[in-house]
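Reopening closed ticket. The problem is back. First fold of the pair:
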Amino acid sequence: MGIKIGNIDIGDFPLLLAPMEDVSDPPFRALCKKYGADVMYTEFISSEGLIRDAKKSTMKLDIYDFERPIGIQIFGNNIDSMRKATEICEKAQPEFIDINYGCPVKKVALRGAGAGILQDIPKMVTMTREIVNATKLPVTVKTRLGWDEKTKYIVEVAERLQDVGIKAISIHGRTRKQMYKGDADWTLIGEVKNNPRMHIPVFGNGDIDSPEKVASLRAKYGVDGVMIGRAAIGNPWFFDNVKHFLKTGNHLPPVRIKDRVDVCKQHLKHSIEWKGEVLGIAEMKRHYTNYFKGISHFKDYRIKMITSNNKDEIESLLDEVSVKFNE
């Protein structure tokens, strides 16, 4: 019997793809699913944008059968807007709705949304209850340890959110004030998981950069699964690597340059199909460095790729990389 979010079985020790703005779009999610991710999330979607029917927000509701189970993640600071956004999301038929209480960026957090709501726990609890009551779908939460060092109330907060009906919680092991600096502290994530009052799945997130790290965090803190973010950018194989290591204690062979090129080309193709040529090419630029990380003398190709706005030119550069660096 696997871990469940509501009635949805997501495997014995699920690997979740973290929702990352401008990264976890359908083209990227497709690759992560192909290479072992168990649960997907959309990029975070503004509740106000959904209510206004803004194209940038509604486009993020695009979900596909091959990537299920998937959660649509929403953020906002107005309870009524969040409730209405939940109803809009439900029509897109995801498996669950996820609330973003973790985004630390200024334009979100300083308006009281994302991690900003960690400064007002009563409002956080009320908003969560309203969202749970607005949908038949399971509701999950992604959050952080607290706003700053003095307000790391996550053990109590997780209990209160469970009490108003959430079906799973993912916790990033930093405060909002830390942003992404310093090391993630998993001790409090472990305390949430090992709190005898908790009965929903608890997923840990933060600094997962190797299969060994996953194995050690699982053994030490007993989390039900892990959420993987930056380690998967340009490296959708990371999920399969983790699964193989947890099962056998060994690593899969390194991914060949030719396979990196093939997957990068697929990513580019789907990105253009989904977003159109201009945006599809622009948003791929963040991925090239990661696809070819660790290859010496790749810099010249990277510069050419990120400065080109021509699909054919980028593909021929990728073909050159495949020939030149083929092991």
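Second fold of the pair, where the issue appears:
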Amino acid sequence: MRVYNFCAGPAALPQAVLTEAQRELLSWQGKGMSVMEMSHRGLDFMAIATQAEQDLRDLLHIPENYRVLFLQGGASLQFAQIPMNLLRGKKKADYVLTGMWSAKAATEARRFAEVHVAASDEVYGYRTVPAFDTWELDTQAAYLHYTPNETIHGVEFNYIPEVSVPLVADFSSSLLSEPLDVSRFGLIYAGAQKNIGPAGLVLVIVREDLLGEVVPGTPTMMDYRVAAEQGSMYNTPPTFSWYLAGLVFRWLKHQGGLSAMAAINQRKAEALYGCIDASGGFYQNPVSKTYRSRMNVPFTLMDTSLEKVFLKDAEQQGLVNLAGHRSVGGMRASIYNAVSSEAVNALVGFMRDFQQRMG
């Protein structure tokens, strides 16, 4: 029996995708071999790769002057690869800190750039997004980096910042959860293991005019221009992860696209936050209501001594991976695209029952 999986990542995948991959595991489309065994430069895999990119372009309405890269190293490697590629002769970059991942991105960028913190909520424990009119933007910055959704702290922007430099965004935990105007960004990147597919892959969507001027000494593998010119195949790519991501893109299309997913995700988030807010303090979420994440819902119990009991009882009910990140504790329910409304309703029912038994 499959459980309801609320893991932050690697996260739940659509069951329909897993079933299709299972059916094709030994023999993809009757070819007598798995995708994992194909040459990445063979016609069959090239067709898989081309279709995956086209489906992603269709879902996000990606303009023609943007290149889509299927890379390795996860989002964490992008923390370095971005300044290597986007400083473009400048020394400074603006960073907005709203959680652990944006803070890590800034720390890594300091190896290559003078990082200017344009705004930060660190002193308050990352519970909100600093008001845009308080941001201190550096006129000499090469770009501005922010993280639209913070997986650990559960803080999500409800707007796209309007700045005069290329806007760079780590969409690892929210890409494909709703429609997005790609044209407002210089570069978007996202680790796959949330809404895209299995771990081992990172997507980069970059405007063409930002390619081709890397920091001296940048390894060839880290040059976006090389990756773009080689179709993300300068070296052997993570072929099976790429294939599975393509199946997810096709599944999203069958669900009605990103507008349909946004409506479903909003209903799931409202159900879970509604349960927390109606508990009279038994459950608590620390994030400002204006900036609560739709993807990652951290919460605590009024009586922290009940947390281990909560997690144990939840697992017995098939509700797994609800422990909060080790850095903040408590609980966290990640409710990405592949986490069904049925799963969220089951969690809400369990939470209400647990409160009745323990409250």
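Update: turned out to be a display glitch only; the data is intact. Residues 74 and 281 are 37 Å apart (CA to CA). The longest helix spans residues 258-277. Please close again.
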